[in-house]
Amino acid sequence: xxxxxxxxxxxxxxxxxxxxxxxxxxxxxxxxxxxxxxxxxxxxxxxxxxxxxxxxxxxxxxxxxxxxxxxxxxxxxxxxxxxxxxxxxxxxxxxxxxxxxxxxxxxxxxxxxxxxxxxxxxxxxxxxxxxxxxxxxxxxxxxxxxxxxxxxxxxxxxxxxxxxxxxxxxxxxxxxxxxxxxxxxxxxxxxxxxxxxxxxxxxxxxxxxxxxxxxxxxxxxxxxxxxxxxxxxxxxxxxxxxxxxxxxxxxxxxxxxxxxxxxxxxxxxxxxxxxxxxxxxxxxxxxxxxxxxxxxxxxxxxx
Length: 303
What we know:
Elements: H1 3-15, H2 18-25, H3 29-43, E1 48-51, E2 54-57, H4 59-86, E3 92-98, H5 102-116, E4 121-127, H6 130-138, E5 144-148, E6 155-169, E7 188-191, H7 197-209, E8 214-218, H8 222-230, E9 235-239, E10 250-252, E11 258-267, H9 273-292, H10 294-302
Parallel strand pairs: 3-4, 3-5, 7-8, 7-9
Antiparallel strand pairs: 1-2, 5-11, 6-9, 6-10, 6-11
Helix pairs in contact: 1-2, 1-3, 1-4, 4-9
Protein name: LysR family transcriptional regulator
Domain HTH lysR-type: 1-58
Keywords: DNA-binding, Transcription, Transcription regulation
C-alpha cells in the first residue's frame, strides 16, 4: 500500500468514475485503474462496484476511503510541520523543465519566488522533452518540474495554467469568428524555425487539430513575429498570455478552443520543504492569473 494508491482511491470515490478521477489528477486512466486494482488485490477486498457508467463504493470501500482521507490529511500535516521548521533557509530547489517552458520559470515564477525566499537557490534543469523531465524526477535529479500535462501515473501533477492558442492576423484577412481549426489548412503562417522547441510545440498543436498551413516565414526571432504579421507576410499562431503589443492586428480565438495545459509535477515521495513552498506559491500565482484573465473561464465554459 502506498500514498499514490490512496490518493487514486479517494479521487475515484469523489468523482464517481475512474476516467473523471484520472482527468482531475492529470494522470493516465489505465495507470489509475491499475493502481486501484493492485490495492484491492493487496487488501483482498473489493473497493468499488460498477453502477451504470460509473462506480460506487462497497461497504468495505467506504471504510477504506474514510481511513485513507485521515491518512492523507495526516501526511500533509506532518509535511507542513517540516516546511514550518525549515522555512527555506539556505535551501536549494531543483526544477526541471523543457526549453519551451524555461522562460515561464526564469522570467515569471522564479524571480517573484526569489524575492520572497531570498535564501533559496533555485537551479533550473533543462530537459529535451517531457519524457526527459519525467526521468529527472524519477532519478531524483529534480525536486519539481514544469511540464505539459497529463503525465504518467507514477508522478503527481498540479495543474498550473491552461494556455489558449489564438490566431494573430493582419486586419485585412477575412475569417469566420471564432475561427474553426480547419481554417488553418493552407493558411500562410509565420512559424518558428524548424528544429527548435517552439516549432515542435506548434507542429504538435497543428497535428492535434489536423491542420496543414503554409510556412510563409520561419524565424526564431520572436520579437520580429508581430512585425512580420503587420507587414502582411502571414498570420501567427501563439499563446494569448504571451502576446506583446497587438495593436492594429486581429486576435481571434478558435472554436473549439485550442489549449495546452501545463502543470507542476513531482515524484510520489515527500517533497523538500522549499519545494512545497514553491508549489504553494505557484498555485497561488495560478489563482491570481485566473482572477485577472476573464478569457480563461469563458473558454473553459465553452468546452
